[in-house]
Amino acid sequence: MSNLAIKIDIDTLRGYKEGTPRLLNLLKKHGISASIFFSFGPDNSGKAIRRIFRKGFISKMLRTKAPSTYGWKTLFYGTLLPAPMIVASDPDIFKRAHAEGHDCGVHAWDHVLTQDKLQTMSENDFESLYGKAAAMFEKISGCRPTCYAAPGWQVSEASLAAQERLKLKYATDTRGRSPFMPKYKSRSFSVPQIPTTMPTMDEILGLEGVTDESLPVVWIGLLNNEWNVLTVHAEMEGLSKLGVFEDFILRAKADGVRFLTLREVAEKAEKASGEIVAGCLPGRAGSVALQSA
Length: 293
Ligand SMILES: [Zn+2]
Description:
The chain is an alpha/beta fold. It has a single domain (about 5-290), classed as Glycoside hydrolase/deacetylase (TIM Barrel).
């Protein structure tokens, strides 16, 4: 029997307001608890256009039909249009996710800013952005957040050190094979990393004959680690690809897959020490934090 933890990232206002309620309905229908990471503050998606000079960005935008996935307005937030606040636009959606027992955590205050500028941020810069998200988390739910998922799978010494100082239960900033205690640039950190083990939809859809119909089967074939983690996006699996995601859930249930949250994985799994290195993944632009081989 395979274990699978579903990690949901919410990056944009549209993903939050339209995709998240649909994903919550789907999870409820199938009796699944997931780990859900919220971008709380401004939706500056339009500024991601800076990445246009990064290798692979345009091909990914075209392959994933970015304008229809994200909505035209989203592509101008923070540039031609003002950046709207995400969770503050409708706190009840976050409140509902928390009340329904999902493992909720911080993805970002400002997703685009953190993904693009993390390497130049000090520990204090990082903590002050995290602190804004954490304050809103606590104000709405009455609980302090204890887990974090880095935007765009980016880490730095400052982000890892801040997680340690904040005494988080776990972080999910990396791509890899198994839960581990991270070492980065020869320093060891005490917050376990629960890596995403499977490729995301936007990395493989449209490649080598992977279609909406075949993707669920491809994912099932990749449930081959002891602790499998799949990251889905409120903007994709919560909107135009909800049916594809549900097809995968149905197949996984039929195969007897056991669903659990990343928090449960962090509690149950053995964690050997492992190095975080920067590297590239097929279908993804730029470099990400990888659990080294
Ligand atoms: Zn994200």
